[in-house]
Amino acid sequence: MHDTPSPESPTESPTESPNRSRDAELIEAGYELGWAGARYAEHTALRHGDLHMTFAKVDAAANRLANALRGIGLATNDRVAVLLGNSAHSIITQLGIAKAGLTLVSLNARHSALEQCQIIEDCGPRVVIAGPGFEDSIGEAIAPLAAPPEVLGIGWRGSELGSYESLTERATDSPPRVLVDPERDIIRLFYTSGTTGTPKGIVYTHAQYYARLRNFFSALEYALGTEHSMVHVGPLTHAAGNYVIPYLMRGACSIILEHFDPDELLDTIEREHANHLLLVPTMITRLLEHIRLGAHDLSSISRINYGTAPIPVKTLGHALDVFGPVFRQHYGLSECPQPVTILYPHEHRVEEAASTDSPLASCGRPVVHLDVRIVADQGPTRQADTVGEIVIKARGAAATDIWGRPDLRDQTIRDGWLHTGDLGRFDGRGYLHIVGRNKDMIITGGFNVYAREVEEALQHHPAVLEAAVFGLPDSEWGESICAYVACKSGQSVSPAALVDHCRAQIASYKKPRHLVVLDQLPKNVNGKLDKNAMREHFVRAHGEDPASLRNSVLARY
Pick from 184, 214, 249: which residue ends a domain? Predict the structure, then answer.
């Protein structure tokens, strides 16, 4: 890569995909994104602190990045990983990498270096773009690799490529005009944890990604245009990022906050007259705790999208009292279009909350372009009150491959149906109710955590004999992580030491919030760890809602 040409690559003739199939109709990579830049040129595309950028400036910055990356020798389908906090660069890199015909891999800034290393090793990016403050963490993540990628630092010099600024300032802002085969070339790898907690890369071709966007718009029931804005408070590498591109394509403004702070969010809504939010239930709970009636003008808010975890009906009722009928729940997965189901504002009827079939207890009804069924003993069905695995058929908009894992692909996608691992049922009115998961996964604060990865982290401690991890209902976090641990003979360890140990192994949000150390863990008749017995033991000792715990023998970390 070091002997490659200048980043100011020629744009007189389009660069074609080497992956082209014989009869493929090529398209210009990122053409819809460039179209938005031209159509809404002088409107404000994003705001981040004192930085305001028009669509024209965002488009030009994306073009410079695309031309710079092609100019140093990257070719269609080469992977580019990004490690960024919420910033303008979160959006510019997403656009620029797409326009270059390259494949975006977003790294979660909250992951440990080990977890980031696993993803980098799995997908083999040529370049990692890392933001300010990530110098040490990205260095630690790539250090074990035999062939580490080049690092392009934003505001700092990475590897021999130098800094992001020094590379892009030499590149032209003309459209790169890279042609791709939409059915075969890959625009994104969405990394999510598999059933074992090992990261898996969900493959999206250009065609699948734009079909996903069309699904988003077909389900959109509210006005969206240049007069609208959304405040982004969640990680743009996570669910919040799903709203960035659709909003840009309609000319709406993205207001970026670096993290969720209730007071900062309330001030921003009032100052910017913001219209839309995307929150996880934990954020809604904390926001309600900070709202003082009359202290902020929140009348501009017309839609609050939420999802990723259940929300207590009592909390939702309070939120409706404060904000009015503006809430819109969605259910979705990385492997398929967003959203899969929607519970629209008019369906948020608190007066029905006591009913087990209340719409508020559901995640809504399936959107028009998706076929959602329940797989029970008799096969896929929409029959009411039949509990089984939720399966989805998305007709061209769902991912159909998992990077380097044909075994997982064949397990997950069978006969065109995506098997979600979530258990659910339809009620008599067609609302989908999530009743559990057959993948041992915990959703805490909007993040997915697999029990096995936490168990493995605990079991790496030299004093630990065995560990069992499961989720508990939690009014603040949706679910909280509870771990039961037994030590090796003659050894002991404190809960605090085990939590500190986990912090070094996995992301902080994956650490146990409640930890019980026993002489031995309960097992069933087959000799397997009995998590149901442990859960019952915890509830008997401490009650149904772990959020009420403060100072107990477990401690809350």
Answer: 184
